[in-house]
Amino acid sequence: xxxxxxxxxxxxxxxxxxxxxxxxxxxxxxxxxxxxxxxxxxxxxxxxxxxxxxxxxxxxxxxxxxxxxxxxxxxxxxxxxxxxxxxxxxxxxxxxxxxxxxxxxxxxxxxxxxxxxxxxxxxxxxxxxxxxxxxxxxxxxxxxxxxxxxxxxxxxxxxxxxxxxxxxxxxxxxxxxxxxxxxxxxxxxxxxxxxxxxxxxxxxxxxxxxxxxxxxxxxxxxxxxxxxxxxxxxxxxxxxxxxxxxxxxxxxxxxxxxxxxxxxxxxxxxxxxxxxxxxxxxxxxxxxxxxxxxxxxxxxxxxxxxxxxxxxxxxxxxxxxxxxxxxxxxxxxxxxxxxxxxxxxxxxxxxxxxxxxxxxxxxxxxxxxxxxxxxxxxxxxxxxxxxxxxxxxxxxxxxxxxxxxxxxxxxxxxxxxxxxxxxxxxxxxxxxxxxx
Amino acid sequence: xxxxxxxxxxxxxxxxxxxxxxxxxxxxxxxxxxxxxxxxxxxxxxxxxxxxxxxxxxxxxxxxxxxxxxxxxxxxxxxxxxxxxxxxxxxxxxxxxxxxxxxxxxxxxxxxxxxxxxxxxxxxxxxxxxxxxxxxxxxxxxxxxxxxxxxxxxxxxxxxxxxxxxxxxxxxxxxxxxxxxxxxxxxxxxxxxxxxxxxxxxxxxxxxxxxxxxxxxxxxxxxxxxxxxxxxxxxxxxxxxxxxxxxxxxxxxxxxxxxxxxxxxxxxxxxxxxxxxxxxxxxxxxxxxxxxxxxxxxxxxxxxxxxxxxxxxxxxxxxxxxxxxxxxxxxxxxxxxxxxxxxxxxxxxxxxxxxxxxxxxxxxxxxxxxxxxxxxxxxxxxxxxxxxxxxxxxxxxxxxxxxxxxxxxxxxxxxxxxxxxxxxxxxxxxxxxxxxxxxxxxxxxxxxxxxxxxxxxxxxxxxxxxxxxxxxxxxxxxxxxxxxxxxxxxxxxxxxxxxxxxxxxxxxxxxxxxxxxxxxxxxxxxxxxxxxxxxxxxxxxxxxxxxxxxxxxx
Lengths: 436, 554
Known about the structure:
The complex is a heterodimer. Helices cover 31% and strands 23% of the residues of chain A. Chain A is built from twelve helices and 16 strands. In chain A, strand 15 and strand 16 form a beta hairpin. In chain A, helix 4 packs across helix 5 and helix 7 packs parallel to helix 8. By secondary structure, chain B is of the alpha/beta class. The model of chain B has no long low-confidence stretch (mean pLDDT 94). At the A-B interface, helix 1, helix 4 and helix 9 of A face helix 5, helix 10, strand 26 and strand 27 of B.
């Protein structure tokens, strides 16, 4: 065989052929079956420079760097979630040990709708597999600045929530406009918390956005943002539900489009998120992404009926996207974003309601963050759920200043005097987690 | 009585086995003349044997591998139906490779039909080039062989031999299917001549029993069937030695089988008498194929490997520069160390001493015994390093279900089974570095010929049933059937069992061989929250094993 990858890439394939949310749920055993068929039939694993890795389960310790699981990890995760997250850790190890230039964790179940506090399953996700990977990479490999580019059709609200207050993670989400699709968030105004304003960028695209629109956004907005942020590592939440065949979304992207997007973005690590056209889209999209990451020529990658089925993007969509990008460029690249100023040490609060669609749980959150000019700021979240839980979650960030550490400890001790069902302390500086 | 004959890279062995055990054995150097070599070794092995009493004769040869490596393949045309994916020109093989119309998707649904006129046109191109052999391969053809069959119908009058890709395996791997089908057609004339000549030789020696060839999976099939399926007998050498070890030792527990030869050491893992198989198939020269194969690793270190000293460190192999010095060679070898230590009473002992003395000077060791021991320990250490790497690779093989992640046991060999020429001399050193007990079975030096002799027929079929599409396919038998929506898993298994028995009988299997289900995956197909069908993938086969009458050899 003459084929050789121009860029050595690792593939972590874990289709979880024995796990489903429920027998007819889109997130079920069959989801990656036809992708496996296509990848095997193409002989990709025989290509020199494409290396397949075996998964390992992540540990509760890995989860505790990111989440507050209520009441505990074992109640909101199953083995499948641990293995899916572990698959991402394997991909990270392969890249950071320099065995490969990039890696693709083609795993399920997905994770980008999981927020910092977890009461159950939202949007098919229990734990945020990208965030667990990012915190593992930071802890084990000492990497600080990362960018996560979420190309799933749904807004990556979980990842946004976890990195909302972290100025060292640039989170960019391209998705179908939240006015037309779950989870109904991800508007341009959502740009990060007081200590990290501007490190969250939302790009809500109109329904029927096609190849042209996605690639335009990449070239005109995403790449310049990355260039300016200078991350040490780029991660792609590679959801595949922007495909024109996806049954639960309304976009107009294609397999070759996804391959082009990957070849432009050049992520160090890609992680599969959503994508539920299991027969008609996933086999070709995954093939395209793998080939693009390996630097192989993907000009012959296409859906079998691409020519008959694919309709180029309409002019009104193109114009809408141009205006959108213009506005976003102004805000995030040309200094148009106006930061609100606070007093150093000021405690800023926000109240939110979060709905867990899969499990039907209502959660109410009261969040406090200490505005801080020396670190990322102490955080506490008072969270109550319709399941009767009422918990306090306190987070000490990496490289926390003394004042923030003291504030966090005060919150935690004060919480002990109140009637919470559980109290958690996540000390990311010491890599400690306490559950009371 | 049964006859086993193994043609190796340097030596050819034959054994005759009766219910009393091995009654005759012979060894001869392998020459370029394969049939001549076979005649030589047979002449000696049959001395004092009544050939008419022979019930079975099995051959393991290097025919196909040599034809590939020495570029003696006949010009063969290839028609490929690819559809979207990797550029199919990347898989080009042979002198006349053509892409033709015809596309199937992964479920085997037709996306574009075959274009009859285009096929006819390409046939004319091939005929103008004087090509008489053809391979026809479609992407996803194991899911639906119809396109390949259509091209066959159009082409059959124009070619001496045509191979269709779907016949080899239900395994999905288009590039390997192309290579396998191509090799099978390209080997056809060579294989046909070989079978005819071998039949003639055996007839002239009055051997009229059933004749078989060994395959790389440790199974056998009838010699006459190999004319159509020559590629299936390639690369059988490692299988011969592993099956020999299983026959002579039993290989209970988890055994690391090592066959130490002149230039290489072959290793394989056997679990309770069953050898591990490769996930997809054998590699023949540069070609990765779909031919089922034992999992083995060949490393460039053997008794005749040259030893050099570089920067005060001893390096053994991977090359062999002629025979050991004790046998007239130029370079010191591990065999010389064995001779010098008196472990081997062959060759010229004083030459072996000179070899060790020379190494000792480079290493700064005066004592010849010490130098020789150092050689054998270094060799054992090297083999261990390779073996651990091999085992680690097996343990890192991906798995695709939660169950396997949670419950899969790591493979850890608990004993060594050592065969091959210098087995007895090296075993104790290997055992020491591995920290594992060892066994050197009797007849260890002709284990490969024994392995060929005693191996049962193997066969494998794959059943792919899709109740949404309403189709069942068993590609190895060109079997296709319409099935109803209500078709059940048990029915698919029964279809598979019937097909396997048919194939097994065709290949020459005994009746009552154990059937093993190697894969059984059933998926509900759901579209828009409703179940629309079931997708069943079942593989069953006759697993490699030893004729029950041959357990006497242990």
